[in-house]
Write a structure and sequence with these properties.
single chain, four-stranded antiparallel β-sheet, elongated, Rossmann fold, alpha/beta
């Protein structure tokens, strides 16, 4: 079958190459604002849990922010109690410690609740996205799959949705915590000492500058690492899935050299990316500790210059600082810097998440199969089929079938022959409505197939494809795929008619034999026999055999021809075959070339014409 040309598709790389969150190569959405708008709409299904998560996170962070100040008060009380400089009671110390313990316990409870809510919400979003994708993929026309790599669709369905789920569960919670922590810590520092707070704020640009510098360099190398990783994976997949060809041409050395080149490139980009990523936390710690030293120095200057602990100053701008609160403030200074630097990383991860959601949206926004008004049903089919002025092309600028007209009577065996790419499979795909006509119509018993539902049509037409497909499961389950209610006795009789029963019974578990994922525990010919039996078990009124005997040996082919002759009695059947010997007995042969039916008739009639079919037939036997 002539297929539309597929656009070039590269293998998708492994993402950020395994670096720390937010440090790797940032994959940005093409339309940030538009994607963000749709993503927020997607989150509307978890609006209430999200609001509750924010509330519980705010309570948890508030409790954790207040706790250090109470600890500072306790330290001050302990200092006064030990030195005896003021009349303080040990019960005041106990009260501070008990209060702090209660606050930490409540912090744990509210944090756990917010995490559980966010986890459940993220799973709900991913569940909803997968459900939408599954429903959408079932409604998309086949030409959508013709122009896209299966791996890319699977990657969106699995990897991108997983990325969104993990990002919601981790990044969104982290974003909420960072914002609340920064605001809460800033307020608490201001309540302790305004001047020291100003120093912390002034030192903040240093940490941000270091973070931006490192991320700028690391992103470049992580992007290169992802590309190099994709190249290595692609090379390994290509070479080791075609190992027989490599060995047949004695090209092992060339394959090894190509791998070493790609592996060295990956090593270089991986080393540089992880080197810069490894610098980030030490540099942030340096900036934090530098601020820690400056704050300690300034605080010591305050105290050494005779400013009393707890003494009076100038309103909110007083220099006075209790010793316990000094320890607390130093802890706050560290808590203040880290969330701000983390926000940059969170934003990068969020951009990657939006890019993943954008790919999900590309599938969800694709044009679906055309829906026509259903005005008829196919019931009590005789099997008269007619093509009326049929015109079709996979793309508007490349028409394959032009003004095709043909009438097939009920019960006839129709063979479709012609060179590769002539349009043989295209014709039967149009009968099944896998694609929609540009113009014209196909009728069954005078009923236009566009006026009946696709499911109704396909239940009446059985199809055996050239590429055999069996799912992992028992042979019985595969056979009953199109008719689960058929009795075992009737199923066995049909298998006997296509000569599949004998080989099935020779298997260890017979009809209960499990076919593995790749179907490698039975031969290609046996798989083809099962697909033919499966089509007949569905009890179709019409049957299509697309190169059904192409993968079967000569002896089996003879048996299949005898069985199919019996099975196709009282059914209109369409047979596509390159082996013209298999269709010599057909009631009608349609000779297709360049998208047109150029000759029609039975074998003897066409041979007498000495036209295209005559030459095609003689080329196989002379």
């Amino acid at each position: 079958m002539a297929q539309p040309a597929r656009p070039p598709m590269g293998r998708r790389g492994p993402g950020s190459g395994g670096g720390p969150p937010g440090i790797g190569g940032v994959e940005k959405p093409k339309d940030f604002k538009g994607t963000l708008k749709h993503f927020l709409k997607e989150l509307s299904i978890i609006k209430i849990p999200l609001i509750l998560t924010i509330i519980f996170s705010a309570i948890a962070i508030t409790l954790s922010v207040i706790s250090p100040k109470i600890m500072g008060k306790a330290l001050t009380e302990i200092g006064l109690y030990v030195t005896g400089t003021e009349n303080t009671k040990f019960t005041a110390i106990i009260t501070c410690l008990v209060t702090m313990a209660i606050l930490y316990a409540l912090h744990y409870v509210f944090s756990m609740i917010s995490q559980v809510l966010m986890g459940k919400s993220s799973v709900k979003v991913s569940f909803n996205l997968r459900k939408k994708l599954k429903e959408k993929l079932n409604r998309l026309p086949l030409n959508y799959y013709d122009t896209r790599e299966t791996g890319d669709i699977l990657s969106v369905f699995v990897n991108d949705v997983d990325n969104i789920q993990q990002s919601l569960q981790q990044t969104l919670n982290q974003l909420i915590n960072c914002v609340i922590t920064v605001v809460g810590v800033l307020i608490m520092m201001l309540t302790i000492n305004v001047w020291l707070t100003l120093i912390v704020v002034c030192l903040l640009p240093l940490a941000l500058f270091l973070t931006k510098t490192v991320m700028k360099h690391s992103q470049k190398y992580f992007t290169r690492q992802a590309k190099d990783m994709g190249a290595v994976n692609g090379h390994i997949e290509e070479i080791y899935t075609n190992q027989k060809t490599v060995k047949a041409y004695a090209n092992e050395d060339i394959a090894i050299k190509e791998f070493e080149t790609l592996n060295n490139q990956l090593y270089e980009s991986s080393f540089k990316s992880h080197f810069y990523a490894g610098l980030l936390m030490p540099l942030i710690n340096f900036a934090t500790n530098f601020g820690y030293v400056v704050l300690s120095l300034v605080s010591c200057i305050f105290i050494l210059n005779g400013i009393p602990m707890g003494g009076k100053g100038f309103g909110i701008f007083e220099f006075a600082l209790e010793l316990g609160y000094l320890v607390t403030f130093l802890e706050y200074s560290q808590q203040f810097t880290r969330p701000i630097t983390q926000l940059a990383q969170v934003f990068n991860v969020f951009q990657t998440t939006l890019a993943a959601y954008e790919r999900v949206g590309e599938i969800l926004n694709n044009e679906e199969e055309l829906v026509y008004e259903i005005t008829n049903r196919l019931e009590n089919i005789k099997g008269d089929v007619e093509f009326k002025n049929l015109t079709f092309g996979y793309t508007p600028d490349k028409i394959l079938l032009t003004d095709v007209n043909c009438k097939i009577d009920s019960g006839q065996m129709v063979a479709i022959v012609g060179p590769t790419g002539a349009g043989k499979t295209t014709i039967v795909n149009l009968i099944m409505r896998f694609y929609e006509l540009n113009s014209g119509s196909i009728t069954i018993d005078g009923i236009d197939t566009k006026t009946v539902s696709r499911s109704d049509l396909r239940q009446k037409v059985g199809m055996v494809l050239q590429d055999t497909w069996l799912f992992g499961g028992t042979i019985k389950a595969n056979l009953k795929y199109g008719n689960p209610n058929i009795s075992d006795e009737e199923m066995i009789n049909i298998c006997k008619s296509v000569h599949a029963h004998h080989f099935i019974t020779t298997l260890e578990n017979g009809y209960d034999t499990i076919i593995n994922e790749n179907g490698t525990n039975i031969s290609q010919g046996q798989k083809q026999l099962l697909t033919i039996a499966r089509a007949l078990i569905a009890k179709p009124d019409l049957i299509i055999l697309d190169e059904a005997t192409s993968n079967i040996d000569t002896r089996t082919e003879i048996l299949i021809q005898k069985a199919m002759k019996v099975a196709m009695q009282n059914r209109t059947s369409f047979v596509i075959a390159h082996r013209l010997s298999t269709i010599v007995g057909a009631d009608k042969i349609l000779v297709v070339n360049n998208g047109d039916i150029i000759e029609q008739g039975n074998h003897n009639e066409l041979m007498k014409q000495k036209g295209f079919y005559y030459n095609l037939y003689n080329s196989q036997f002379n």
